[in-house]
Amino acid sequence: MLGVQPRTVRRMAETYESVFGELPRVRPEEDRSPRLWTAEAVRRVQVAHLALKSGKVSSLEHALVLVRDGAELPVVAASESGQEAATLSAQIAQLKTLLEAQGRELASLRELVQAQTRELPEVDPPAPEGEDDLRHAIREEVQAALNPERLRVALHASTPAPQRPSGWRRVLAALVVGRSRG
User: Fold this and answer.
1) Environment class of 16 (CB within 10 Å of its CB; exposed 0-12, middle 13-18, buried 19+)
2) Helix (H), strand (E) at residue 61
3) Which residues contact 167 (CB under 8 A, 6 or more apart)?
4) Which residue of 8, 20, 94, 156 is surrounded by the most CB atoms within 10 Å?
């Protein structure tokens, strides 16, 4: 109703309780049980909050003290807030009606498109002159390039030839192989 965050409401409740005393709790035996806001407490906080927002007071506590002491502060008219709620409710109802109408229209358009799509003949576009020859030539080149024997030869040709070790490396390799056998 105030248009504030829940944590702000909790702070307001603490301030309210410091001025007017504790609010009743849902489960009185538990300290952290949710508060029960009476209609009178809600009205008081609304009036104090409105005074704070309008700049007539410097703090919520000061506004609540003024409310407690009977000072004149701007009053929230119940009919205004009720009228706002009724206006919003009517607007929501209008939006819901429009949304439903759009949904029905969208569904009918979707059915129409599907029906028209089913009626269309399936035709491949004609190939431009000479395009079949080009496709055939490309297909033959790709098949030739992917020929397994041709790929094996190309792979073998691209593999570097093993290099024979130089003279002293051969001797060293023979010694190492000889020691490992012996």
Assistant:
1) buried
2) helix 60-68
3) none
4) 20
Structure tokens at 117: 């799509």
Closest CA to 44 of 27, 61, 26: 61
Per the CB < 8 A criterion, the answer to whether 56 and 73 are in contact is: yes
- Sequence letter at residue 71: A
CB atoms within 10 A of CB 49: 20
Distance from C-alpha of 172 to C-alpha of 34, rounded to nearest angstrom: 88
φ, ψ for residue 86 (rounded to 5)?
-65, -40
Mean pLDDT of 30-44: 87
> For the segment 75-92, what is each residue's pLDDT rounded down to a tens digit?
555 445 556 766 777 788
> d(Cα 39, Cα 41) in Å, to the nearest integer?
6
Q: Which helix (H) or strand (E) is 73 found in, with range?
A: none
Q: How many residues would you count in the chain? A: 182
What pLDDT is stored for residue 132 in this prediction?
79
Domain ranges of the chain: 6-68, 77-118
DSSP class of residue 58 equals S
d(CA 132, CA 62): 90
Residues 6+ positions from 17 with CB-CB distance below 8 Å: 23
pTM: 0.40
3-state SS of the chain: helix, strand, coil percent to 5? Answer: 70, 0, 30
